[in-house]
Amino acid sequence: MIKKFKGYRRLGYVVVFLTLVVIGLPALLVRGCSWESKEPIGEEKGELQVKLQVSKGQVVSIPLEQYITGVVAAEMPAAFHQEALKAQAVAARTYTMLRLTRESQDEKHAGAHLCADPGHCQAWIDATEMRKRWGWHFRANHKKIAGAVKDTKGQVLTYSDELIDPVYHASCGGRGTEDAKEVWGHDPLFLSPHSWHDRQDRSVRHYTLALVLWYLSLLR
Description:
Blueprint lengths: L1 H31 L16 E7 L2 E6 H12 L6 H19 L13 E2 L11 H8 L3 H14 L6 E2 L2 E2 L16 H5 L24 H10 L2
Parallel strand pairs: 1-3
Antiparallel strand pairs: 1-2, 4-5
Helix pairs in contact: 2-3, 2-5, 3-5
């Protein structure tokens, strides 16, 4: 009986050993070959960081290309043509790079290169705000804009090998704009107004007084 018991005990050791090999070894291998990235998604090592004042007293540091994606998303509708989004990305990147290279920072956003106030610098929104604005279209719109930013990565506007100040506006009303000299007192050679007209410009609307009065009557 004692010999038989010892035999069962040895068999038990073998079973336990095999169980540890079958279950434990794969677990160790999976743990050792984890696909989880320790680097932040979408950030490249050594990428320039933009110090952005998102609100008064709150400054965050954002990778350059990630910041540009947020600017394009805030400044231009995602429904615009891909080439328009690319042009916006290049303008926004140039605007940003010029301010990154300046030694002094604006008093309005001390401690930051830029602010998220479109009336002073460039508009900018984060992924949370994008989800609120786009809803179910978030993934498609973000992919489209991020693609425009990626396709133009590293591209900036220069004149005589110097970064220009690519100021831009939302709508020109069918014409370019006034001469820069009328606003800033100097007239850059690369910047001049040109008249144009797009009859299909959806940002322009014409209303008659009768139509306006009819709309107002509906609100009573």
